[in-house]
Structure formats: structure tokens, C-alpha cells
Amino acid sequence: MSPEPDGDGVLRRVNPAELSPPRGFSHAVTATGSRLVFLAGQTALDGDGRIAAQSLPGQFRIALTNLLAALAACGGTPADLARVTVHTTDVPAYRAHAAELGRVWRELAGRDYPAMAVIGAVRLWDEKASIELDGIAVLP
Length: 140
Description:
Blueprint: E1 3-5, E2 11-14, E3 28-31, E4 35-42, H1 56-73, E5 81-88, H2 91-96, H3 98-109, E6 115-120, E7 131-139
Parallel strand pairs: 5-6
Antiparallel strand pairs: 1-2, 2-3, 4-7, 5-7
């Protein structure tokens, strides 16, 4: 096992050597903080309630920005994310844009990767949305 403790010790990212090397996620995250934040699914909705991008990378950027805004309103930072689930209506497109999505993640959230999963969905609540992100954060 190769634990990667964070500076404040609230979250520890664990990536066992016997598993494939993680790229853009952590295999496991342990949490010892005192406050959980459950983040609702966020799509690319703008302040007027409209999907503000058409491309999957554009929607990912806005959905992640919205998720991080909800987290910041609770006093958290991207490094506090323990788990993020990505729901998409187009898994092949997500895979095709993986490098670009990784760059967006690093730009907005840094390199402290949470445990993550990508789930294919027939459709999302917002019919024009192709991606939705939800998460769990642990605050000290």
C-alpha cells in the first residue's frame, strides 16, 4: 500500500501497489475529519437555470465549477473532496476527451484526486445535460 497523507491529515489517499496505477483518481480515500459535506449533482446550469455549454468538456468545466462553488460555500476546498461521481450520457465521449477533462480538473481542482467513478446514464435530470458531478467532502 502507498498511502499519500495530505498536509492537514484529514484525508489520506491510498493507492495500493498491487492495483493498476491510478490516473486522475485515487483508489481509496480515508477520512478523519469532523464534518461531512454531501454535494448534490451539478450540471452545466448557469445562474438562469440553462445549460451553458454544448460540448462534453464545456459541460464538465461548468459542472465542476458549480460543484466547487457549492463546496466553497460550506468552507471547503477541492483538496477536501473524498469522493466524486461522474454521471454521463456518453461514456465513449468521456473517454475520448479524458485528457482534456484531466486538464480541466487539474486547473480547477489541483492534483489531490478523490476516489472517483464514471457512470453511464440514459439521461440526466436536465435533459440537455450530458454530464453531472456529485461528491462527498470531509472538512476538518
